[in-house]
Amino acid sequence: MQALSAALTTEGYDVFASNVPVDAVLILSALMNDDAVSRHWNTLEAARTAKATARRIITLQSAHIPSGLDGLSRTLRKEWPQTEVFSWTLPEDRMQWTDLVLHALRSGYGDGLLTVEGQLLVPVTRDLVTPSAPPARQPGVWLVTGGARGVTAACAVSLAAAAGGTILLAGRTAETPWLDDLPETRDLKTLRGLLAARPREPGTRLSPADIDRHARALLAGAEIRDTLAAIRDTGAQAEYLVMDAGDAASVEPCITRAQARHGQITGLVHGAGVLADRYADEKTEAEVRHVFAPKVAGLENLLRHLDSAQLSHVALFSSAAAFFGNRGQSDYAMANALLTNAAHQIAARATGIRIKVFHWGPWAGGMVDTSLASHFEAQGIPLIPVEEGARIFATELLAGDPDQIELVVGEAWAAS
Ligand SMILES: NC(=O)c1ccc[n+]([C@@H]2O[C@H](COP(=O)([O-])OP(=O)(O)OC[C@H]3O[C@@H](n4cnc5c(N)ncnc54)[C@H](OP(=O)(O)O)[C@@H]3O)[C@@H](O)[C@H]2O)c1
User: Fold this and answer.
1) Domain containing residue 280: CATH number
2) Which of 145, 151, 219, 340 has most ligand 1 atoms within 8 Å of its beta carbon, as the pocket-test mutant?
């Protein structure tokens, strides 16, 4: 082994053993000029390899390109308690990077943004200070992705009540009409029973899976109409747009048509999101792509087709998983951390836009189903009541401190 190393070194090769313990591994994948998913996926894969030998893993990202490796390091520290994982955000000036990284290594810095002076800035959030006066009405044209269903729907209704104007709800799901002969219900089990008992053409058979699919489509259509009705009850206008935020070809025509009908969009609420939970050791690239699509590609697509000069408000739905890290949610934490870093860039570029990132703790609704709810309750993490979360959302967006971009809503998470 040593003779082979010596011979290769003589030939001009750099020789190192990949299986000996090392103090620190720096991962530079996110500094490459790749698309967002590749940069994050390659970093996660490299971190998995480095874990076998490294005591410390440090991932590097640039303040210039929105990235979410801070969400990854917070999650990996929880999933890999034996390894120290940090993320450093480097300033825009590449000429300084080498000196800064060496300085940060010598200083033993944890997560944060390295300033050109070599200081480490760490994100802080302040406690919510509820504004003393209720928000003034701020009618405009609001686009709310994910706003027809889930917890964002409750936020859209609360926004409509407080702000007025026109609320455009966007989601992928078609608005399936209710069947005339079906009694109204919002209970999946009851609806499956009603569908199974409906008279059918002789010779036609429906499998339980067909019935379940049909029942879910009917309930989704009903949820969309319930949200539209609740918004109209506040006096605001409402419309539902079938739009896949992650698909550029879907976003552009949808926004163009909506603006032709209602005028320029002045407020963006980006609530679209999906989960694909799995520990980082087993996470696949397809899962990272799935989770990044609505949030990350979604924000890019929306901002590309909205006129930023017309925007007065932007609200991005993130998760406490991005701020504290959460086992099984490395992709979701990265995507939400990326949204957060993008928000800071938007705020730095565009004065006059009130921008808020909500790092939500778990709600008593939406993607928190009964099994997730009991998991959080077992950890002593209380769920955010839907009405309370929706009220906080509208109040903070419309009347909160304009300099406070990030808000953690809910209790701090246990370190598990
Ligand atoms: N619930 C919580 O406890 C919690 C906690 C932290 C953060 N959040 C954040 O809050 C947001 C809403 O979560 P939720 O709990 O309400 O989830 P949910 O019940 O699963 O609803 C997700 C919403 O996003 C929409 N959506 C998903 N992919 C989309 C796409 N590609 N284009 C357009 N719309 C899309 C869905 O509509 P379609 O299916 O019709 O597309 C649906 O309205 C998410 O961003 C989530 O990360 C929620």
Assistant:
1) 3.40.50.720
2) 151
Residue 18: CATH number of its domain = 3.40.50.11460
Prediction pTM value:
0.93
Query: Are 314 and 395 contained in the same domain?
Result: yes
Domain closes at, from 89, 121, 153? 121
The answer on 190 and 290 residing in a single domain is yes
SS3 315: strand
Q: Give one DSSP letter per residue of 362-416, joined into a string.
A: -BSSTT--HHHHHHHHHTT-PPBPHHHHHHHHHHHHHHS-TT--EEEESPPPP--
Q: Cβ distance 337 to 61 under 8 Å? A: no
Flag residues of the chain having pLDDT under 70.
1, 5, 15-18, 129, 132, 412-416
* Whether residue 376 has its Cβ less than 6 Å from ligand 1: no
C-alpha 361 – ligand 1 centre gap (Å): 14
pLDDT tens string 271-289? 999 999 999 999 999 999 9
pLDDT in tens, 3-15: 776 777 787 777 6
Q: What is the mean pLDDT of the chain?
A: 93
Any atom of ligand 1 within 6 Å of the Cβ of 244: yes
Which atom of ligand 1 is found nearest the CA of 246?
31
Residues 92 and 196 placed together within one structural domain of the fold: no
